[in-house]
Specification:
The chain is mainly beta. Helices cover 0% and strands 48% of the residues. Strand 1 and strand 2 form a beta hairpin. The protein starts with a strand and ends in an 18-residue tail after the last strand.
């Protein structure tokens, strides 16, 4: 039986050797016919801790590694990364 492969975005990499991947899919509403988005988070094994927030990755189904982790990161599709935005606020003292 072939292993399932999903593509999603890394939303957390705080735990050791684990990333949380958000996978979105579009489905048609059974009654109204409108296309709606459904999302689910998966814990995936990341041995080298190399994937960062915002990366689009491909995950593959594998044997159970822990209680919640049955997926492994296969490769990076698009490098993302969270960019820091500096706030340069020049607040002038009003009324003095």
């Amino acid at each position: 039986m072939p292993k399932r492969i999903l593509i999603g975005t890394v939303t957390s990499n705080k735990t050791d050797k684990t990333v949380t991947v958000l996978v979105e899919r579009k489905v048609k509403h059974p009654l109204y016919g409108k296309i709606i988005r459904r999302s689910k988070k998966y814990h995936a094994h990341d041995e080298q801790n190399e994937y960062l927030l915002g990366d689009v990755v491909r995950i593959e189904e594998t044997r159970p590694i822990s209680k919640t982790k049955t997926w492994a990161v296969k490769d990076r599709v698009v490098a993302g990364g969270v960019q820091a935005v500096e706030a340069n606020l020049d607040v002038a003292e009003a009324g003095n």
